[in-house]
Amino acid sequence: QKEVEQDPGPLSVPEGAIVSLNCTYSNSAFQYFMWYRQYSRKGPELLMYTYSSGNKEDGRFTAQVDKSSKYISLFIRDSQPSDSATYLCAMSSGGYNKLIFGAGTRLAVHP
Amino acid sequence: GAVVSQHPSWVICKSGTSVKIECRSLDFQATTMFWYRQFPKQSLMLMATSNEGSKATYEQGVEKDKFLINHASLTLSTLTVTSAHPEDSSFYICSARDQGTGRANYGYTFGSGTRLTVV
Question: Is the dihedral of CA A50, A16, B110, A69 positive or negative?
Answer without folding.
Answer: positive
